């Protein structure tokens, strides 16, 4: 049984912890490796921080143009090895091979944007704010920055942060999800073999809550980026603040899509079905509440048909459109939420429970499920299910739909499907969510835009990606400079 090692001070080493937990392939529940876990991982984290701090002291003075050079190579590495990495992602996380390739493309795009950091991070300068006095602002790195990531995008989410952190002159420590650590392990092996980075600049440490708490509490860690459930995001934000850190913490979601009566049925069905069931519904931007406005017979029939015909199976097999959910626990949690919804009065239009995939009977498979007429005050309306479940609601008007959306606790995404520009304009202005889609089912910002969650979907102010990333990983310094002796000639 392979036990994953940590990457500290530019080398691979065994964890101080003798406790390990298994990593499963969710399609068949086979154990593929094991990962260090438990209280002794704190020693690993402390060691990584010590070396990261030394690397930062060297790296911060490297000219900005030179700091981005390794990122060009990193991009090529990911491009050259994307097939192997995508296979690893599918086998540890369950999504289809095409979805794994898709997330890697998003990772690569973030590296590309961060390659322009030396331009995006340029200073502001005001000459002569008073006679003989100039004022300017520079951005300097923070020090050691850490990132804690969730299970659902093992190859992409670390790259929402890593390239920006090092391009701006920081050292970076990644603590990946203990459920899916192998893709980043492989990427770090590639980095180790191919990039000439100062030892300790990039570190990979494993573990769960103990490692995270060690990162939160250590005085040399200056910033924490987190992506995961709202409950943990809130904890990270408040603990980080307690220990004086800069924090960006992205949380969970419950994403609505409104379908107006004029929406194109075929296009809307295809895009919404991909949004709800893509990655088996385990995307923070997966649509889960579908709101039809007015008469909904045709669109409802079409959504039911599409749900029933989705091809479920092992993500590495050809033509598979949806893989398993991450774990046995996750599967039973989703099933019990479906049962609860039915007990609370929902009508089950499509039932995806109690079905197997031939040859993968031990896998954590669920098929698409559609619930309708769920009472608005019930748990299933407000709880993030994080599985392939659509909750279908019907409202009289777009305004009623917006009012319902705005009453929810999350604000990661809201979308509308319509052919009417005015409705779309009103929706994008009034819906209280940070990522809006118009005839788009997964409104995932590309790398140059911030990933803008609102409400309980985000804690902090500067988001991941693009300029926000650069601002998050730098602190401003304003310099006011007086040169009292002025020149004698004017031109
Ligand atoms: P999770 O919160 O269980 O775990 C995320 C990370 O936090 C892991 O690395 C884990 O080791 C660590 N962790 C777990 N419990 C902890 C604790 N008590 N104290 C400290 N650290 C802890 O999330 P998950 O199940 O891996 O991921 C799914 C969640 O992530 C969903 O809610 C999803 O919506 C959310 N998500 C959000 C975004 C976004 O951009 N907003 C993106 C992807 C996923």
Automatic annotation (TrEMBL):
SUPFAM superfamilies found in the cross-reference section: ALDH-like
GO biological process, one term: thymine catabolic process
Listed PROSITE patterns: ALDEHYDE_DEHYDR_CYS
GO molecular function, one term: methylmalonate-semialdehyde dehydrogenase (acylating, NAD) activity
A Pfam family recorded for this sequence: Aldedh
Entry keyword set: NAD, Oxidoreductase
UniProt protein name: methylmalonate-semialdehyde dehydrogenase (CoA acylating)
Protein EC: 1.2.1.27
NCBIfam families for the chain: MMSDH (TIGR01722)
InterPro entries reported for this sequence: Ald_DH/histidinol_DH, Ald_DH_C, Ald_DH_CS_CYS, Ald_DH_N, Aldehyde_DH_dom, MeMal-semiAld_DH
Designated gene of the protein: mmsA
Domain of life per record: Bacteria
Domain Aldehyde dehydrogenase: 12-479
């Amino acid at each position: 049984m392979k036990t994953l090692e940590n990457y500290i001070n530019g080398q691979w080493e065994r964890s101080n912890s003798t406790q390990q937990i298994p990593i499963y392939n969710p399609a068949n529940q086979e154990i593929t490796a094991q990962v260090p876990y438990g209280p002794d991982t704190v020693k690993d984290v402390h060691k990584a921080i010590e070396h990261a701090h030394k690397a930062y002291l060297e790296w911060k003075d490297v000219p900005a143009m030179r700091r981005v050079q390794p990122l060009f190579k990193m991009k090529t590495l990911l491009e050259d090895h994307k097939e192997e990495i995508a296979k690893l992602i599918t086998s540890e996380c369950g999504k289809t091979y095409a979805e794994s390739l898709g997330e890697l493309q998003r990772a690569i795009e973030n590296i590309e944007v961060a390659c322009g950091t030396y331009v995006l991070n340029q200073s502001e300068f005001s000459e002569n704010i008073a006679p003989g006095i100039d004022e300017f602002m520079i951005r300097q790195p923070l020090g050691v920055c850490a990132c804690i990531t969730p299970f659902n995008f093992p190859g992409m989410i670390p790259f929402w942060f890593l390239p920006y952190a090092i391009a701006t002159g920081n050292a970076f420590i990644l603590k990946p999800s203990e459920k899916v650590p192998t893709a980043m392990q492989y990427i770090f092996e590639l980095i180790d073999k191919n990039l000439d980075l100062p030892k300790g600049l990039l570190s990979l440490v494993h573990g769960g809550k103990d490692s995270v708490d060690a990162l939160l509490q250590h005085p040399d860690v200056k910033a924490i980026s987190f992506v995961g459930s709202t409950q943990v995001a809130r904890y990270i934000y408040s603990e980080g603040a307690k220990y004086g850190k800069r924090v960006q913490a992205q949380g969970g979601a419950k994403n609505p899509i409104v379908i107006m009566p004029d929406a194109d049925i075929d296009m809307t069905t295809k895009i919404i079905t991909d949004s709800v069931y893509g990655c088996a519904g385990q995307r923070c931007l997966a649509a889960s509440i579908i709101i039809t406005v007015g008469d909904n017979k045709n669109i409802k029939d079409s959504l039911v048909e599409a749900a029933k015909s989705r091809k479920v199976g092992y993500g590495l097999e050809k033509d598979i459109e949806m893989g398993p959910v991450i774990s046995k626990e996750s599967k039973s949690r989703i099933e019990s939420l479906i049962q609860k919804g039915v007990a609370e009065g929902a009508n089950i239009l499509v039932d995806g429970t109690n079905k197997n995939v031939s040859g993968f009977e031990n896998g954590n498979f669920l098929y698409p499920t559609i619930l309708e007429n769920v009472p608005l005050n019930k748990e299933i309306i407000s709880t993030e299910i994080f599985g392939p479940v659509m909750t279908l609601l019907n409202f009289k008007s777009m305004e009623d739909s917006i009012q319902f959306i705005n009453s929810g606790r999350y604000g990661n995404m809201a979308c509308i499907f319509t052919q009417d520009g005015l409705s779309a304009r009103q929706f994008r202005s009034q819906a209280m969510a940070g990522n809006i889609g118009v005839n788009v089912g997964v409104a995932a910002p590309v790398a140059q835009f911030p990933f803008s969650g609102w409400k309980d979907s985000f804690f902090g102010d500067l988001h991941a990606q693009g300029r926000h990333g650069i601002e998050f990983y730098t602190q401003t310094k304003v310099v006011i400079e007086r040169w009292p002796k002025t020149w004698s000639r004017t031109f």
